[in-house]
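Sequence only, no structure available. Ideas?
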Amino acid sequence: MRAVRGVLAGDPPPDPRRFALLDLGFRPFYLLAGAYAALAVPLWALVYAGAVGPANPLWHAHEMLYGYTFAVIAGFLFTAVRNWTGRATPRGRALGAIVALWIAGRVVAPLSLPTAALFDLLFAAALAWGIGRPLVASGHRRNYFLIPLVLALGGAGALLRARPAATLAIGLDLVLLLMAVMAGRVVPVFTNNAVAGANARRVPALERAALGSALGLAALDALALAGSPAPGAAAALALFGAAAHGVRLALWAPLAARGRPILWILHLSYAWIVVHLALRGLAGFGLARPELATHALAVGAIGGLTLGMMTRTARGHTARELRASPPEVAAYALVQLAAAVRVLLPLAAPQAYPGAVLASALLWTAAFTLFTIVFLPILTRPRLDGAPG
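Reply:
I predicted one. Tokens follow.
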């Protein structure tokens, strides 16, 4: 029997009003991530400004990593692993149970970060199980590394109370490594597919250097957690990494993407990895503020790359055109402005730091509010072509 638009001929047409939030992992986690990013950052801004409660920078850092970022990672991996392996990842009740673990961590985080970290560890274990079964069953060895990486990210959160700065650094290192690997796989391909003659390419030796620098920084931060810091080596490696990632990005033909917002957001956001590594290296030699390096990664790279990938994959997996709508383009611009205000303005005018924090929070909030509004109906309704997922 012939299939027509994802439905067998003669079958009743799919109900476009059906609630589809638990059909595939990207749906609940992208929606929750967007909504949480739009709510948690303005709350932090109020705390930072002294309008609400005592300031707790650790809560803000933990929730942006284990609340927002980990949710996006889960949504992306559950969806990507199904595509890579052709095997099912959690959906329906199983997916709902994993979502509940993430929500539990967010609910208890304002009251007890150690308890939230326990839920995050359980969430990491559930995510590792959800992607590990299809990867192992299909023999997809290329991506086996994702299983220990996810577990390591959850384990770093569990150590948060003992050594908060070091464990957060390791968590960010792991996210940086994951972004660098995935961006290298997709950004050049997306660029060549979208722009005739772009000639985006990867050079094996440069790939090893760029990814090796990210892995090396994670190893050095792990040594620091164990009581053997090597700040000079970490600073030098970060500067080397900035150069390697900068050349890597240049080979991906970023200028060819300038007329395609759904593509340029990925290139421009990856550039913030270069800024992060350069600032981290300078900070290690006492020439820059460490928090500016952190926010170049957190706002510019993580915020921008996740926003770009969420819009792209959500459109692709709901059978929509891979073209950003005007509100999505506005969200891309707002998150990039948030990064520039948070990082570059204090570099140029250190006395503007408090105002830069609040202005950046406002821009970030606007970006993710737009994302949530636009994608709420997209993520909760079935695919346009009636196919599963």
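The two ends are 21 Å apart (CA to CA).
Hope that gets you unstuck.
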